[in-house]
């Protein structure tokens, strides 16, 4: 299967990404910009949603017009940094349901362990968008996607702000059918698995915990 990575290079997304990369951007502006970038990315990501023709009446006359054909969408943030992207996406897709996945890395096996999973009950019939600002090693992204598949999900996309090739390869090794949407593919990872140049710890910068 062809590897599917989509770099969303809209000028507004790229401009805002540059501001959040800057170490002098504080948590308030950082959070607002992650929110705005997520809205813009959701707009691009939903470009191919199916439409149907419905008949409506304007104040002037009857017409046939297009509406979304009822596709059900679910957004699944990986906690905690993924939470920062949710409102930006639901602004664009207000009927989307939101599930949550919490994972931690077992210090001995280095495997991602689920500590919290709460999902819409009908995930089998939904197009799911897993969100996390950073796709670094790909360990938690791949485990989150697996957690959804184990519960019956079949239609999954992954959305992040910054990815590196290692993380892209990890997802595509385990889940070759999953499309990845990112605003940038950065250089690589440092010895602490932070993205270079990246923007540091996404959770800390969103929630001001550093
Ligand atoms: N997670 C982050 O928050 N930042 C990185 O650079 C990599 C993973």
What's the mean pLDDT score? 94
The secondary structure category is alpha/beta
Span between N and C termini? 41 Å
Biggest sheet details: 8 strands, mixed
- Provide the helix percentage: 25-40%
Computed Rg: 18 Å
Dominant shape: globular
- The helix tally amounts to 6
The distinct ligands, each listed once, are: uracil
Strand element count:
15
What is the H-and-E element order?
EHHEEEHEEEEEHEEHEEEEH
Low-confidence stretches: none
Percentage of residues in DSSP E strands: 25-35%
Keywords: Allosteric enzyme, Glycosyltransferase, GTP-binding, Magnesium, Nucleotide-binding, Transferase
Binding site for 5-phospho-alpha-D-ribose 1-diphosphate: 80, 105, 132-140, 201
InterPro entries: PRTase-like, PRTase_dom, Upp_B, UPRT, UPRTase/APRTase
Pfam family, one: UPRTase
Features of the shown structure:
210 residues; eight-stranded mixed sheet; 6 helices; binds uracil
Give the topology.
Elements: E1 5-7, H1 11-21, H2 27-45, E2 51-57, E3 62-68, E4 73-79, H3 86-92, E5 97-98, E6 100-105, E7 112-118, E8 127-131, E9 134-135, H4 139-150, E10 155-159, E11 162-164, H5 165-174, E12 179-182, E13 184-186, E14 188-189, E15 195-196, H6 202-207
Parallel strand pairs: 1-12, 4-5, 4-6, 4-8, 8-10, 9-11, 10-12, 11-13
Antiparallel strand pairs: 2-3, 6-7, 14-15
Helix pairs in contact: 1-2, 2-3, 4-5
């Amino acid at each position: 299967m062809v590897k599917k990575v989509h770099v969303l290079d809209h000028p507004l997304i790229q401009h805002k990404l540059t501001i959040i990369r800057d170490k002098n951007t504080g948590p308030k502006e950082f959070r607002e910009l992650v929110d705005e970038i997520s809205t813009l990315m959701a707009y691009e990501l939903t470009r191919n949603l199916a439409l149907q023709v419905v008949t409506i009446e304007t104040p002037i006359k009857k017409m046939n017009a297009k509406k979304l054909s009822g596709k059900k969408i679910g957004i699944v943030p990986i906690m905690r940094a993924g939470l920062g992207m949710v409102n930006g996406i639901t602004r664009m897709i207000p009927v989307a349901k939101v599930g949550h996945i919490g994972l931690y890395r077992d210090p001995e096996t280095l495997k991602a362990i689920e500590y919290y999973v709460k999902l819409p009950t009908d995930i089998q019939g939904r197009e799911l968008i897993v969100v996390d600002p950073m796709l670094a090693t790909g360990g938690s992204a791949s485990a989150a996607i697996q957690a959804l598949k184990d519960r019956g999900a079949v239609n999954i996309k992954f959305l992040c702000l910054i990815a590196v090739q290692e993380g892209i390869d990890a997802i595509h090794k385990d889940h070759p059918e999953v499309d990845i949407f990112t605003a940038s593919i950065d250089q690589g990872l440092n010895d602490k698995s932070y993205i270079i140049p990246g923007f540091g710890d996404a959770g800390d910068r969103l929630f001001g915990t550093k």
